Amino acid sequence: MRVFALLLSSYVLLSNTLYAADDKPAPSLQDRLKAAALDKEPFTLVVEVSIKPGSIEKVEKLMLDAAKQTNKEPGCLLYDVHRNPETPGKYVFLERFRGVAGLDAHLAAQYTKDLLAAFGSESSEPVKIMLLNQMKQNP
Length: 139
Known about the structure:
It is a single chain. With 139 residues, this protein is α+β, with helices and mostly antiparallel strands. The protein has one domain (7-132): Alpha-Beta Plaits, CATH 3.30.70. It has helices at 29-35, 56-70, 100-108, 110-122; strands spanning 7-14, 17-19, 43-50, 76-83, 90-97, 127-132. A six-stranded antiparallel sheet has the order 2-1-6-3-5-4. It is globular. Mean pLDDT is 81; it is low at 1-21.
């Protein structure tokens, strides 16, 4: 059965491994995409991150570098970073990839690894990742 619902999960990033609240390794994004039958089509990720007050400037530099580089990746359709002006340290990433291959290439890039490592050490709460697919209109 094809899943068209939003899949929302909270994770903590520790040493580049995502863990669910029960301390069991969470399914990879690739596994989640396959389960939602989205592994061969474009998909969107909405990532919410909260950064510790003393780390904001350092992590923002990594975020902006990752955004600049990621938007040049052939498998990336969109990669935007948004800051909450009312709550310092709160960010939302809008990421759209052509498919799993684009995500895999993105996750293998050093700037992405550097950013994920910073999330692991500088996040003040679990990183939230929402997986979305675009709804299609009937002809």
